[in-house]
Design goal:
By secondary structure, the chain is α/β, with parallel strands linked by helices. It contains 18 helices and 14 strands. The chain is globular, with a radius of gyration of 20 Å.
């Protein structure tokens, strides 16, 4: 598999190099040089396979000979060992539940597969490998648990202080060991900027083998393509050609993966980019100018991103496909409407949380009567239990998973820093010394 740096096309790397390197020069993201295309016959055959078998085939098609099919199968079996149910809410809308993994969020897919693939590369580290990533809520837990206790890899996760839920924080800030967490006095975009500065810093580069495990890493992104195929495979045949998918979007990795699945030939009529009031992309699609504003905290905190990293990949894909970016549908949902939508979904007999509600609202606003809609359920409602109970004005009967029960009793082990890069650099060097 060959990939090129979107910012500097002359920089070309293999899949293994991109997996280990994370970012390219000038903070550029890597993008596949060749985009697989499946025929209608191949798509129908893929949709008849099991999730594991299908995912192995899709990933093998992308990666090529760098990893054997048996190696990829082993990675997929170890990573995707939890269900992905499609649950109907009404006659023409369903939720693809992506939150049945160990940290109750969709990011378990990408983080676990990336960790497994790093093990398969048999990379010999001549200096300490550090997975450095920022989280707006769920990435941190998924990455921490995927890499916890893996030898020769240290994980450092930055998150915005006071802007993630208590349950989210407990899930990944209580592990210790090879997992270090840093609470930053700023928003997610501040954390993301610090991570990018670290990748450009000569001092850190000389001493450490830096990598990233958020959706800028190609290993995580490819993993997410697989569950779009799984969702479609659970639909009756007659619904597959009128399918609309709404994706709750923060850093836009999830939507990028969906669009790549569509590019492969997956029958999706259209995608909807669903955001909260951090609406840089909706404003860009409507007015044609890119103007990130200061990030605002919302109920759907994992989507509180004003400068989404993966947008450059989406633009690159549309350019490669000779399609207008204006074809992409979008929705923007404020907190008041998010609360009302959680209530509306509950009245239909389904318990959701803010991120799913944003996608559901955007979907219902755009869905035509002759279409069938899927919204992605990206987080388990138990992670936002207090908030959902406040919305519904009643206690909800959700059994707290064992992993959360255990973590809730443990102390937070995070370091605290300002959004000053020198503070981060000094702390990283101290942690890894």
């Amino acid at each position: 598999m060959k990939l090129y740096n979107i910012q500097q096309h002359s920089e070309q790397v293999t899949f293994t190099q991109a997996l280990l390197q994370g970012l390219g020069k000038n903070q550029g993201l890597f993008f596949p040089a060749d985009l697989p295309k499946f025929s209608i016959f191949e798509i129908n055959s893929l949709l008849e396979m099991s999730f594991i078998e299908r995912s192995t085939h899709i990933l093998s098609t992308y990666i090529g000979s760098e990893l054997s099919k048996n190696s990829i199968l082993t990675c997929v079996k170890n990573a995707f060992n939890f269900p992905v149910p499609l649950v109907c809410i009404n006659n023409n809308v369903a939720v693809l539940e992506l939150f049945h993994g160990p940290t109750l969020a969709f990011k378990d897919f990408g983080s676990r597969l990336m960790a497994q693939m790093l093990n398969q590369t048999n990379h010999r580290f001549d200096k300490p490998m550090v997975i450095l990533t920022a989280t707006s809520g769920d990435t941190g837990a998924a990455v921490a648990h995927a890499f916890f206790n893996l030898s020769n890899i240290h994980v450092i996760i930055l998150y915005p202080r006071g802007k993630i839920s208590a349950l989210q924080e407990k899930l990944f800030c209580t592990l210790g060991g090879n997992i270090s967490t840093i609470s930053v006095n700023g928003d997610f975009d501040s954390c993301q900027r610090l991570v990018k500065q670290a990748f450009d810093d000569n001092v850190l580069r000389q001493k450490l083998d830096l990598n990233s495990a958020n959706s800028i890493n190609i290993g995580r992104l490819l993993a997410q393509i697989c569950y779009y195929f799984e969702g479609v495979s659970q639909l009756p045949h007659q619904m597959r050609n009128k399918l609309v998918i709404a994706v709750p979007s923060g850093n836009f990795g999830n939507l990028t993966a969906g669009l790549l699945a569509q590019s492969c030939g997956l029958p999706v009529k259209k995608f909807i980019a669903a955001t909260n009031i951090n609406d840089t992309v909706p404003r860009f699609l409507e007015y044609g100018y890119w103007e990130p504003r200061p990030t605002v905290s919302t109920f759907s905190n994992a989507m509180d991103v004003s400068s989404p990293n993966n947008w450059s990949r989406i633009e690159e894909l549309f350019r490669r496909e000779n399609k207008s970016i204006k074809e992409l549908e979008y929705g923007c949902v404020n907190d008041s409407l998010t609360e009302k939508t959680v209530q509306e979904i509950a009245d239909l007999g389904y318990l959701s949380e803010p991120h799913t509600a944003v996608a559901y609202r955007s979907l219902c606003d755009k869905l035509h009567s002759d279409e069938f809609g899927i919204c992605l359920g990206t987080a388990h409602p138990v992670k936002f239990k207090e908030l959902v109970e406040d919305f519904l004005k009643k206690k909800i009967q959700v059994i707290l998973p064992v992993v959360l029960k255990e973590r809730m009793k443990l102390p937070i082990l995070s370091y605290e820093i300002s959004k000053c890069f020198s503070s981060l650099r000094n702390l990283i060097l101290r942690i890894t010394s």
